[in-house]
Amino acid sequence: MKMTFRWYGSQSDPIPLKYIRQIPGMSGLMGLLDKPAGVDWPEEEFAALKKEVNEAGLALEVIESVNVHEDIKTGLPSRDEYIANYMSTIRMLARQGVKVIIYNFMPVFDWLRTDLARVIPEDGSNSLYFDEKDLGEMGPLEIVRKTAEDSHGFTLPGWEPERLALLETTLKQYEGMTGDDLRKNYKYFLDAVIPVCEEVGVRMACHPDDPAWPIFGLPRIAHSQADFDKIIQLHDSPANTVCLCTGSLGSNPENDIPATIRHFGEMDRIGAMHVRNVKYLGTHHFREAAHLSSAGDLDMYAIMKAIYDTCPETYVRPDHGRMIWDEQGRPGYGLYDRALGATYLNGLWEAIVRENQK
Fold it and tell me: Can 319 be counted among the known catalytic residues?
């Protein structure tokens, strides 16, 4: 297991790299460049980012948020230009030593919460929270405005202003689209980019829908084991993998997370893992919890054991953390609770390793 940490860059992230390096067992980052969907990432900018990270004693082998342009998802004629840019970015990242690219194929919204700082009564910390009832009469435009207001001035992954500026137009493009329609467009994308990945030694890792069910009537096709089986079959290749996010899939209690890890781990189709805990509060109602198993409803020991048994060399990061100890920062991406999460996961890992050495 390679323990990593998500970082937004020195111009956007208040957490300095030296703090991340001081987390026990931390080997690298899941990093990104803040670029609009569809652009060809400039190599000189990425090389500078990599140099900064490496000089801090951390690796940069996993990249997140090489966002797929909505024209690709909706199958517009302009998609070929954006796919060409994506393929160029894959080649550039490979030259820079990147092994895994995490992305998603969610229409419009990468993830959705109804409260970015819901206070947890038991301890006074706060965390990301979702209750479908809170959406009430709010439509997509209203939830976008609310999320922007609650983000403390930070850009949130999947909620970049340039992506949402044309929200009404984008939503109209999805009117009448079915899951099968979206899968057809997805296959077109994979058929273009996966051969490039095979050529240069990069794995694409698709992140699940978050939360794990349809939102605002948009087609969503990546929120169960069966969904990801279909995604893998769209272009069957070792380069077509899953970024298995335990919290996203785990938002639906019908998903058996350890079993899903074993299913795809045994197939060698897990490119990376986001590991976090969730607390179920009702139907389509949950909050994000501390990584400790008893703080939520996911069995973190069983999750880490499944990783150990089926994909022990994968990249892992502690996912969204609570805001604790009066920390102020990007919702879900503070330092303290994610550092605690990494340490807890490393502790489970050490225990599992020792158990299996007896």
Answer: yes
Q: What pTM value is reported for the model? A: 0.95
Question: Is 229 in the active site?
Answer: no
| Active-site residue, selected from the candidate residues 13, 110, 131, 319 | 319
3-state secondary structure of 81: helix
Q: What is the pLDDT of residues 167-211, one digit of tens each?
A: 778 888 999 999 999 999 999 999 999 999 999 999 999 999 999
> What digits encode the pLDDT tens for the residues 82-118?
999 999 999 999 999 999 999 999 998 888 899 999 9
Instruction: Select which of 320, 336, 337, 344 is catalytic.
Output: 320
Q: Which of 174, 245, 291, 336 is catalytic?
A: 245
Mean pLDDT of the chain: 94
Annotated catalytic, 320?
yes
The answer to whether 291 is a known catalytic residue is no
Indicate the length of the chain as a whole number: 358
User: Which domains are present in the chain?
Assistant: 2-355 (3.20.20.150)
At 67-78, the pLDDT tens digits run: 999 999 999 999
Q: How far apart are CA 115 and CA 165, in angstroms?
A: 22
Please say if 227 is a catalytic residue: no
Q: How many helices and strands in the chain, by DSSP H and E?
A: 14, 12
Clarify whether 274 is annotated catalytic: yes
Q: Which residues contact 166 (CB under 8 A, 6 or more apart)?
A: none
Q: At CA 356, angle to CA 355 and CA 358, rounded to 5?
A: 75
Q: Which long-range contacts (CB under 8 A, 24 or more apart) does 145-151 make?
A: 147/113, 147/116, 150/115, 150/116, 150/117, 150/331, 151/116, 151/330, 151/331
pLDDT of residue 156: 63
